[in-house]
Structures are given as C-alpha cells and as structure tokens.
Amino acid sequence: MKRFLKPSSTAAPSSKKRCILKSLSDELQDIELDSEEKFTIGRSEKTGISDIFCSKEQVLVKPDFNKEALSINIKGLNPSGLNGFMLEQGKGYEAYKDDIIEIVYGRYPYKVQFVGEKPVDHKQNSEQNMATNSNTAHARNEIMKQSGGSEFESIETGKLLVYTSDGVKSSNKIASFDMDGTLIKTKSGRVFPKTIDDWQIAYSEVPGVLKSLHEDGYKIVIFTNQGGISKGRMTTKEFKFKIMSITEKLNVPVQAFIATSDSVYRKPKLGMWNYLEQHKNDGIKIDREKSVYVGDAAGRLEQTSPVKVKKDHSCADRLYAINIGIPFFTPEEYFLKRKPTPWCLPEFNPRENTQMDLLDPKHSKLSSGTLEIIIMVGLPGSGKSFFARQYLQPLGYEVVNRDTLGNAQACISLCEKNISIQKSVVIDNTNVDIETRSRFISIAKSKNITCRCFVMNASSSQMKHNIIFRELTDKSHIKISSMVFNSLKKKFVQPSLSEGFSEIVKVNIIPKFRSVEEEQLYRMYLVED
User: Fold this and answer.
1) Is residue 366 domain-shared with residue 477, that is, in the same domain?
2) Where does the PNK FHA domain start and stop, copy by copy (predicted)?
3) Distance CA 198, CA 188 (A)
C-alpha cells in the first residue's frame, strides 16, 4: 500500500483543504500538500525517485486552494510534463483537478486532486451528483442509440481508430480537418480539455461551411492526433462518445481517423491519409488539387500587432498537407476568411537533395594509413553509426560501440585490446563532452599513436528527422526520446585540437536507401515542430 509523503510534519484535519498528488505508479508514494507553501519534488529517498534524469529539485509546486489550482515551475535540467505536453524552464504553468503531472517528461506521473474543500450538505450534494450522472449517462446512451449505421474500426491493435458516421459517401474531393483547435475548442478556455465534455464548436461558421461542402459533393474527413489514448489519459470508449457527440453537433456525415500513439499514423506522417486512400474511399481516386486540409498547427510565428498572439505549438498540420500535396488553410483563413499570418517551416527540408562532399575539408582521408584511434562525435540521429559501419569498418577499423558492449569500461578495454594487436579503432559513441573523449585520447597518447576526431555535421532538426525515419524503417534501434536527445544536446561541447586531436574532420550525411519506398518516406516531413 502506498503511503502519503507529506512536506510538513503536522497532520491536517480531514476537513482542511488539501492538494494530493496521487501517484499513478505503485513504486512511488502519494504526495500531500496541506499548506499554500512552495514544495520541491525531485530525486530523493522520500519520493523514491532515483533516476539521474530527474534533478533533486526537479519541480517546484505551490497549491492555491481557493482556485483549486497548482502552480508549476520547472527547476531541473530535463523537462517535465503536463497532460502529455512538455514543460520548459522559465515558464509558469497551472494544473487543475485530474490533470496529470509527469515529474520528468514521460515518467513518474501524478494525478492532481483537491479534497476537503468545504463543508457541504451531503444529502443535497449526493442528489445533485446522482442527477448529473444520470443525465450524462442518459445523454451518452441516446447518442449511442442514434449512431444508426455509424461504426468504429480498430487498426493495428488500436494504433489507428476509424469512425464512419451514417451517411458518409466516398468522393474524389476530400475536405479534411484537424479536430482540436480547428473544428472544436474547449468550453473552459483552457488549452487542454478538463473532461471529454469540455468542448464546443470553435466558430459559429463551422456547421454551415461543412454543410455546404457536403452538398457540393465533398467527403468530410477528420484527421486527429490523440496520443492521450495510448497514455491512458482518455479511454477509447470515452473518445468514441466524444467524436459521436461532435458529429451529432456538426449535423453532417463525417469520417474520422484517430492516431492514438506515436506511430506511422501520427501527423505529419501519412499513415492516416494512406489508409483513407487505400481502404476507406471505395477505390475512388482522390483529386488532390480539389481537396483541402485545415488545421491550427501551422507553424505561425508570435504576433504582437494588432493583438498579441502566441506562436503555434507545432507545424504538424501544415506539414501534413505538404506531405499529402493538397492546399492548406488555418481555421481563421478557412472559416473566418482572414488573411494569412507569417509562418515558417522547420530548419531541415527533407525534400532538398543537396550534393555535398562526404568529408570537410574535402581533402581529408578516411584512413590515415597508420595505427590510430578515431573518435566519432554526434548526437543520436546524426548518422555516426552508419558512417562508422559503411565507411570505416570495411577499411579494417574495429567499431567500438557502447550500445553493443553495455558500458564505458568495456569500450575502453576493447579499444586497448585492438590497439595492442595493431588494429585501428573507431569509437562509435555520442562522445559529446570533453571528459568522455579524454579517456580515449589518453589511450592514444600512452601508445604514442594519433587520435583523430570525426564530427557529424547535421542540424538538430535533421537529426530528429533521422531518428523518426530510423524508428519507422528499422525496429532493431532503441527508441530515443526527446528528453534523452535534449539532455545530450545540453552536454555537447564542440571538439577542439587542444584536447589532443591531430585532426578534426566534419562528416556530412549522405543518406542511402534500400528501396524507392524508403527514399519517398525520408523525403517527407516527419517531425511535428
């Protein structure tokens, strides 16, 4: 049984307002906050968190019992999470009842609860709750009954859900829309809905526009990312009710594709669109020039005039339309006829096929022709392992890789063993900091041999793209989270000759593909931001 971890030693009466962070993991204790004081949560014996990615002072929280809100500030080196979204240092956040806080992004989840708010008339409260629950259940049952010929399908064990309402007809013209922030918005005014009922139609113009499109022969389609389903923040059953409620309100036949996890179906990847084309349009070829996609994740920049508007949280919807090859509009442009606002694409454009030399300077040689140690330097997705295997291993270099060997000491031992038998070595690790590189430079110095550094020349945007591409095409690779990538990026120190290198060479990524389909996938935008 889990115990309460209390920041103060004085027990609070049950009638006193309290905020409880209820652990969703059996390994961790619940945390009880019984005063409006600041409290730090992090790596400690008290919390039971021992993960090195969690700082000792990871999250600073402070409850407000009147607002029933919990203020959150990130103090740790790595990001934390709120309702599945990454939180950053230097920004203040608020959590409310039933919100999910992840002390480290993707790890150590707690549900926010407020208890003992005020004395109540328990009889009246019970009757009100019974009436509310009865009304809600009745409304849901009615919607389920009225669904008629509507149906749900689960693809690849739930990675993709497809909902087809009664009356949907296939067409060569597709009018497609994102859901949250495009067709609907929260009634509460919050960025993320508090409950499945926390929604309303985003603009009064939406139903009329959709009706006109339907009458003009368009098939109305929703493409939505709903990663919260796979993370347990919403059940499939709850979302089915929500999408049917939305369809009823829109009063037009709709087919919805729901990506429930980080898979090939998640936008901007084309899994949902491909499934529509191949399986859900009765073989009718879609005319992309006549089709359209509307979404709010459009990569728009922050605006200060005429009113201040925050920049978009991502560019996934615009990139999705670019990948498909259909016209794109924001909700404001499409429904309200407003003029486009400034926006930008990611730094890395996968469609560019720039010709470049493998090595920089271009007169550099892959092999020095003498016994040596080459230290690769690059973040995950930079292509260093591919380069080491494809270019250096065939020249006789022994590839030393920590992922294969398990730890740093094993890498050092294998390096020394090969040098002792006069075989050159390439250290295929990230080697992002001076201390890590110094271990192998010291070996080279003790053996009186040269040590060169090969630095992968790729932007963060390109590396993130490569990570996703690798996950989609090679299941043997370990999944690299954003937290791990950002942690290594913060530690990165540009190599210099003063460390003891005889030469520093930049390596450009020149991708190679096993098939035309792989290259077509690589040339798509795969990263959401």
Assistant:
1) yes
2) 19-89
3) 7
